[in-house]
Amino acid sequence: KNMMKAGKIARMLARQRLMLGHRGVFGSAVARQEEVMMTGPDFSHDVDVGSLFCIQANKCFLMEGKICSNFQHNSRFRSITHDLSRAFGDSGTFFTVRNSPVDKDSDKTHLNVLAHTVALHALPDAAKVDLTPFPPANKVGNYQPGYLPAGKGVSHAEGKTSHAQTFDVMYESDKNVWPKEGVPQSFKADVENVHQKMEIVAQGMLRALAKMLDLREESFESVRGANPTSRLRLQKVLPEEALEGGAASHGIGEHTDCGLLTIICQAGDAGLQVEDASGVWHQVTCGPERLIVLPGNLLETITNGAVKAARHRIVPQKGEGVVSMELSVTMPLDAKMEPHTDLEDGSGVYGETTQKAQMELHYKDA
Known about the structure:
Blueprint: H1 2-20, E1 36-39, E2 46-48, H2 66-88, E3 95-98, H3 109-122, E4 146-148, E5 161-162, E6 164-170, H4 187-212, E7 229-237, E8 249-250, E9 252-255, E10 261-266, E11 272-275, E12 281-284, E13 291-295, H5 297-302, E14 312-314, E15 322-330, E16 336-337, E17 353-354, H6 355-363
Parallel strand pairs: 1-12, 2-3, 5-8
Antiparallel strand pairs: 3-13, 4-6, 6-7, 7-15, 9-14, 10-13, 10-15, 11-12, 11-14, 16-17
Helix pairs in contact: 2-4, 3-4
């Protein structure tokens, strides 16, 4: 019965997306509106995830928190999965979350990291030479730690130059590079701390999304293996007046991401725009008190299209630019991925793929 119910949910959500003309990974000829709606803290798809992350669980004396966790387990998920179902059943392709381990951190380390991001990108180019990776031998090589100046990254807009300055850190990797001067002494520790907290959020959201589809809660999280991989990007998209070229320069063009999820914390309240299933673009105006969660191509594949990858872009702003940190939640490069057996409907739209294959598609002509 559970298999039949899950399949029914998946097909229902997929039909809703088709009716609404959302393109997902494979695209559609449906024309999109260029309307941009303002999406603020009162956004109807803003999910309170506080109950999902019990900050006392690791301190509880009752069997190291296990009794607390087991007792509250179902109730923790119930309201969150209801909110997620509402978000994705109402032309939604993304949602924001509050009361996560990131914004509830009493030390507000994520605010420190956003400030560190500004300090890092303000350093003179000469100070960042040692942080710049060698040119990648292939497209997948774009997923490597280090710094890239504006104009060197991908723009996702043919013939245009990217405004984005990026500094990438891989999760628990000994290949990460760190600035030696010009940034606060706590830079490395703060970045690693936030990276870990955002990983915890990612794991919780993958479990909640699985429960939303009536699957075992570890269904999506388990595909990442025993050693999860992710990339934390400290990014500044320069203001529109910063680069020469006018129409030849761009922030970051329309695209979907190649992993399972992208989780974003932005310093300001402008720049990021996300397209919903009806083709309307939303200006996501929440600041660092919220995280923005965007499903990626791999999640679309494993859910057989029940959850679509969120198409998004970053539009350059006047003045200070757009500062953010972004967690890309990925899988081992060669691990094979296909639709979950309980969500497969026999259509064959989504076939077997790998993280490496999705990365190559992501960077093709980008």
